[in-house]
Amino acid sequence: MIKPLEPADLPLAAEIIRASFATVAEQFGLTEQNCPRHTAFAVTAEKLEAYLAAGALMYGFYEDDRPVGYAALTKNGRRVFEIHNLAVLPACRHSGYGKQLLDFCKAKVKELKGKKIVLSIIEENTVLKDWYAANGFVQTGTKKSDFFPFTSGYMEYTIR
């Protein structure tokens, strides 16, 4: 089940996000020292609270009433939405939960009259890039920032 998150849900949501992104950090050799702004280290309940207060739409994925996944949407321009921190706990991956969250976000954006969804990933994470491509996203560009030891890849999905 996917449901909107309330402020009381955000401490656990932050834990889910950090645990989910920790596997990515480990895979790419990211640490709090060499990449403190990475999601595995930077997301806190307080940051999520501020994000929610600013209008982010946040959703939790529940397996038997236990939260195991998270995704957020923000309006990023006229009829464009951005997906943030789509995450599934490592122990619950490969169960279709990520795809269900992604499909939910696509449907929500369509319901909100959005025309496009954008997101960013670690460009070198080819497994994730391929997963998004298999789910209809196309690559739109890359950017190397001084504050990340990786290249950011940008993808988008056009609502049909």
Keywords:
160 residues, seven-stranded mixed β-sheet, 7 strands, alpha+beta, 34% helix
Task: Explain what the structure shows.
With 160 residues, this protein is α+β, with helices and mostly antiparallel strands. The chain has one domain (2-158): Aminopeptidase (3-Layer(aba) Sandwich). Helices cover 34% and strands 32% of the residues. The chain contains five helices and seven strands. It has helices at residues 10-27, 39-42, 45-53, 97-111, 126-134, and strands at 2-4, 57-63, 66-75, 80-88, 116-122, 138-144, 151-158. Strands 1-2-3-4-5-7-6 form a seven-stranded mixed β-sheet, sandwiched between helices. Strand 4 (80-88), helix 4 and strand 5 form a beta-alpha-beta unit. Helix 1 packs across helix 3 (45-53). The longest helix is centred in the first third of the chain and has 18 residues, at 10-27. The relative contact order is 0.15.
Number of strands: 7
Q: Specify the CATH class.
A: Alpha Beta
Query: Radius of gyration from the CA trace?
Result: 15 Å
Low-confidence stretches: none
Shape assignment: globular
Number of helices: 5
Q: Secondary-structure element order, as H and E?
A: EHHHEEEHEHEE
- Overall mean pLDDT: 92
Summarize the structure.
By secondary structure, this protein is of the alpha+beta class. The chain is built from 5 helices and 7 strands, in the order E-H-H-H-E-E-E-H-E-H-E-E.
Write the layout of secondary structure elements.
Elements: E1 2-4, H1 10-27, H2 39-42, H3 45-53, E2 57-63, E3 66-75, E4 80-88, H4 97-111, E5 116-122, H5 126-134, E6 138-144, E7 151-158
Parallel strand pairs: 4-5
Antiparallel strand pairs: 1-2, 2-3, 3-4, 5-7, 6-7
Helix pairs in contact: 1-3
